[in-house]
Design brief:
There is one protein chain. With 215 residues, the chain is mainly beta. The chain has a single domain, classed as outer membrane lipoprotein receptor (LolB), chain A. It is 13% helix and 47% strand. It has two helices and twelve strands; from the N terminus they run H-E-E-E-E-E-H-E-E-E-E-E-E-E. It is globular, with a radius of gyration of 18 Å.
Length: 215
């Protein structure tokens, strides 16, 4: 058991070495973590600009129903004319795809899309591993998820908030930026997501409408 514990600790230390360094850790009780996530169940409609390598862009409409308490999500992608291209939901950990037309029917697309929505709108499920300041002065809380991934939630001095997802080894996979909070319910007028995949892509989501359902 001691050998196993040492190996786990060594892996954690190794993975942290490739993550951005956190300095000036505050005293216990002094940390207020940035919180750009939903506080209650919301129906959100966004205009989504999809940016791909080679200056390829396209625009769709995204409709999301997200509940931060139950962590249930349903979403749809449609054209400006109203044609539904993709529709899926996750309830109690079960993912159901109701409709998926090309190019949204590719392998793992639905899983990644639901995971991206949860990363954007739900607080991390893991535990706060470390908090303090990044080298540029941003306040940050670092979360360690149950699957070994890391999530940094940070706020700059100008109060811009970002969420970064890293692999267990410290490689960045997602960078989300929240721009211009609309109100106290943490509904942002603009959310940008940059994904590091075999084919990198970016989403620029501009809020059209938000409706609260309470909890």
């Amino acid at each position: 058991m001691k050998i196993k514990a040492v190996l786990i600790l060594s892996l954690l230390v190794f993975s942290c070495q490739s993550l951005p360094k956190i300095i000036d850790a505050p005293r216990a009780g002094d940390t207020t973590c940035p919180f750009p996530f939903l506080k209650e169940r919301q129906r959100l409609i966004h205009a989504i600009e999809i940016r791909l390598p080679g200056n390829i862009t396209s625009t769709v409409i995204g409709i999301t129903l997200a509940d931060p308490v139950s962590r249930e999500v349903s979403c749809a992608i449609m054209t400006a004319e109203g044609m539904v291209l993709f529709e899926a939901e996750e309830n109690s950990g079960l993912l159901t795809v109701n409709r998926a037309l090309p190019p949204f029917n590719s392998e793992n697309f639905s899983r990644k899309m639901i995971d991206d929505i949860k990363l954007m709108f739900f607080a991390p499920k893991g535990k706060i591993y470390q908090s303090g300041l990044l080298t540029e002065g941003e306040t940050v809380c670092r979360w360690l998820e149950d699957d070994g991934k890391w999530i940094d939630v940070s706020a700059s001095r100008e109060k811009d908030i970002s969420v970064k997802l890293y692999t267990a080894e410290g490689a960045i996979k997602r960078h989300i930026t929240f721009i211009s909070a609309r109100d106290k319910d943490n509904i942002y007028r603009r959310v940008e997501l940059h994904a590091e995949e075999r084919t990198n892509y970016s989403l620029v989501m501009t809020l059209i409408e938000a409706q609260s359902f309470g909890n």
